[in-house]
Each structure stands twice: as C-alpha cells, then as structure tokens.
Amino acid sequence: MHSLAFPPLDCSRPRLSRLGAVLLAFALCAFLSACKVPLYSGLSEQEANDMLGKLLEYDIDATKQADKDNYITLLVDEAQFGQAVDLLKSFGLPRPQFETIGKVFTGDGLVTSPVKEWARLNFALSQELSKMVSSIPGVVLAEVQIANPRKTTPFDEVPPPSASVLAIVNRSAVTAELVPRIRQLVAHSIENVQYEKVGVVVLPVDPPPPPTIEFVSLGGVAIRKGGEERAVLLAGGIAVFSLVLGAAAALSVGTYLRSRRKERVG
C-alpha cells in the first residue's frame, strides 16, 4: 500500500509569488495597526491588574507582559497612549509608592543627631498615614503632613503637634462622615495630637463617564464602532491566506498527478 506523498512547493511560480507578496503586505498592515507601546513598567501583579482592568473598562486596547523578574509592563495601543495616561491619572493610578517606617530606618549604621532621627520619624509617620488615608474607598490620592516640633532644651516652649490632610476624593464618595473619620484616624495615630488639631481639605473630583458602546453593521455582522478598519483588515488577511493555501494545495496536487501520469506513460 502506497502512502500519498506531496512534492515540495515550487514557490518561484509567478502566481504563488504574487499571492505571497499580497499576504505579506496584509500581515505587515495588521502588525502596524496593532502596534503597542509600553505605558508603565516595573509594576506588581496587583498594580498591573488594577490598571489593566480600568483601561479595558474604558475601551482602551491594553495588555500586560511579565519580565524575567516577574515585574509587569503595561502595553497600550500607540494611538491611545495619551488617552490611557489621562484616564489612569484621573483614578490616581498607579498608586504612589509611600515609604514605610521599616524603609526609613534601615539601620544604615550612620550616627545621626536626635533632631534628624525625630525628623525621620515624623516623615515615616506621614508616609504611613498617607497610605492609610489613600486606602479609604473613594479616595483617589491623599497626603498627610505632620507638624510636631521637638524641644531642643528643657526650657523651650513648643506649640502642640498638629497634622494636615489633603484628600482628592471621588465626588460620589464625599459624605458627611468622611472628614470626621479621617480626622479620627490621624489623631489616633500620632502621639499627643488632638482631634481638633487635625485639618482636612477634601477636593472632590468627577471620574470620566464610562464609554458608550455603539455597534455598526458590516456585511450583516454587528461590529463595535471604531473597529471597522481592523475587522476588514482581519477578514481580508484571512481571505488572502485561504487563497494562498488553496493555490499551494492545488499546485502540489497538480504536480503530483502530472508526475504519476508521466510514470505510467513511461
């Protein structure tokens, strides 16, 4: 019993070469139309997922890619780069990287003065509190500053410590309980700070409205508006690729049958 073996394709034939050139042109156009550029890199998995979810929610073509160190790079369509940056900024993304007390006091071995240690402690507390307030639902971004002067001599008179908070909050999350909760949180986190000594300024912002998805009919098929060009390009590429495969198969079968016919005649 003989197995069917097809001879190698003769790609030098003019017809196949022309079809191959057309296919290559379509593939190049598809590649250029889908070109993505890095938006943010060095992200954690959680940060990347939060940002990617928000971009996809607003109909921005985005993907993520992990490097060898498991850090994530966020990629977006080059034509939507500016829109993606503005959108993420409006939601306070990516979140600021606040310092922690552990990072501030790393034990570098250097001898510092008590005043510098006091300043480092206040800075670390302000960073920790900024992170805590920013984690409140609806808060886009928050910054806490601590005014906690230190006595340099036993006879110094210093004002009582105080704190100020600037919070950028989604308008829908601004309630009557928000400011008292922030003041209570800060007052209970800093030694000797009274509730009345915590000032809070809230700036309400409106997030961009979700996009309205519209569909258009293309050849009897419903396609999202704005994606017609890509759909036509994809359909054309598939059609050309099918033609090339069909021509290659027909050429191979024809060559095989001619060779078999010559063998029988001979």
From TrEMBL:
Taxonomic lineage from the root: Bacteria, Pseudomonadati, Pseudomonadota, Alphaproteobacteria, Hyphomicrobiales
NCBIfam families, per database record: III_secr_YscJ
Main location class: membrane
Keywords: Cell outer membrane, Lipoprotein, Membrane, Palmitate, Signal, Transmembrane, Transmembrane helix
A UniProt-annotated Pfam family: YscJ_FliF
Membrane topology label: Lipid-anchor
Protein family per UniProt: Belongs to the YscJ lipoprotein family.
GO terms for cellular component: cell outer membrane
Cell compartment(s), UniProt: Cell outer membrane
Name used for this protein in its record: Lipoprotein
Every Flagellar M-ring N-terminal domain range: 37-201
Gene3D superfamilies xref list: 3.30.300.30, Hypothetical protein rpa1041
Transmembrane segments: 231-257
GO biological process, one term: protein secretion
